[in-house]
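Readers of this paper often ask what the protein records in our data store actually look like. An entry from our holdings is shown next, in its original layout:
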Amino acid sequence: MKPLNGRNVLITGAGSGIGRLMAHHFADERANVAVVDINAKALEAVETEVRERMVHTASYQCDITDQKGVSRVAAQFRKDFGPIDVLVNNAGTVIGKSFCDLTIEEMRRTMEINYWGHVYFTKEFLPDMLSRKSGALVHVASSSGLLGMPQLSDYAASKFAEVGFTESLRRELKKSGYQDISVTVVCPYYINTGMFKGSKPLLFNPFLEPGHVAKKIVAAVKQGKPLVLLPPVNMYSTMLLKLLPAGIFDTILKLSGGMDSMDSFVGRKS
């Protein structure tokens, strides 16, 4: 899917952060953009920003953990835009507590937003792509989908699930002959959106700027990339280091500041 001009795009978690910026970048590519978020006020602002770029746009308030609500959004999208071309599952949350301090309800909520909400949207829209034998699925995961860190047990579990889900789905579609449906998983390091406010970056690993990440994701859609690691050198290095004995890797992680990274986490307040 190289040109995005005239394509119909839906982005979840588009009220702020990279979701909002992706909406801008897709619109700059002349795509039609639907934005989804639980925050109605933020959605209204993003819809206005996208409309100023002179493309067709709409906003849908939705708690993505509500499967029936997701179905309503999908039905309305089809009425407003027609068939979908690009689905970007971006909505996410992080709590930042140790496992012993997390409640089961908090862990379940993290999984419902970061994993199940993405599954619900994929279930709604993938059949449309299959019938047309065309489309692009993008799941925004995290570096925590590749590496488990302290104070992120629930978050890492949800992101590991998303990475595995996306990888399996991509190969399943490829096996079934759907070569023109691209499936992309994005694993970025900490992004400077406020979501990880208070956490400390690892040695030689400053926070990523959201505009850079958003541009990389839109470019990946155009190129049909299966995997986006940001920053690439650091992420690939981490994957190679995991081949070392666990004790040695843990020592390297501690020296880089990874074991204490979430100790001063504050996060983005609702």
Remarks:
- The chain has a mean pLDDT of 95.
- Strands lie at 8-12, 32-37, 57-61, 86-89, 135-140, 181-188, 227-230.
- DSSP finds eight helices and seven strands in the chain.
- Residues 8-260 form a domain with the Rossmann fold fold (CATH 3.40.50.720).
